[in-house]
Amino acid sequence: MRNHDEMLEFERLFAPRGGHGRFEPNTDVHLDESDGMIVVHVELAGADADSLHVSIGDAYLTIAGSRALRDLTRNASLLRKEIQYGEFLKQIRLPAPVHEDGATAVYRDGILAIRLPLAQSKKFPIVRTEIRMTVRRTST
């Protein structure tokens, strides 16, 4: 659906950047034909693992959550601000239909890794499905 893609691009271009607002995290999407998987990596360093939501619907993978603004000490002066904070939403058009059964999402070391098994069907289902996610925290 071209209108949907154009609307997402419009929202991305004119969304507030930086500060406390909505942003889109950086994402890599790979097709692993040997394993029959679509693999998605989302850069989310500092995001609260409990805020992450991953779902599939209408040929799109949707990732949403939030990254809280870090507290600065009262004596600190901000000299440069590039990290984006606040709520985020990322919608990725899937290149092929996938099975929601067997889909996994693992958040580790600031990267959300999502693995989606390819479906045999060439048509996208019209169902929305939440993906169960495992959070692995690194020891500090």
Describe the protein in words:
A 5-stranded mixed sheet has the order 1-2-7-6-9, with no helix packed on it. The protein has 140 residues and is mostly beta strands. It is elongated, with a radius of gyration of 17 Å. The relative contact order is 0.24. It has one helix spanning 2-14, and strands at 27-32, 37-43, 53-57, 60-67, 86-93, 104-108, 111-117, 129-130, 133-135. It has a single domain, classed as Immunoglobulin-like (Sandwich). It is 9% helix and 36% strand. Strand 6 (104-108) and strand 7 form a beta hairpin.
List the helices and strands and how they pair.
Elements: H1 2-14, E1 27-32, E2 37-43, E3 53-57, E4 60-67, E5 86-93, E6 104-108, E7 111-117, E8 129-130, E9 133-135
Parallel strand pairs: 6-9
Antiparallel strand pairs: 1-2, 2-7, 3-4, 3-8, 4-5, 6-7
Characterize the quaternary organization of these chains: single chain
Helical content stands at: under 10%
**Spatial strand order of the main sheet:** 1-2-7-6-9
Name the beta content range. Answer: 35-45%
- Domains, number: 1
Please identify the structural class as seen in this structure. mainly beta
Tell me the number of strands: 9
Q: Give average pLDDT, whole number.
A: 80
CATH fold name: Immunoglobulin-like
First-last Cα distance = 45 Å
CATH architecture: Sandwich
Low-confidence segments: none
Largest sheet: 5 strands, mixed
**What is the gyration radius calculated from CA atoms?**
17 Å
Output the number of helix runs. Answer: 1
The succession of helices and strands, N to C, reads: HEEEEEEEEE
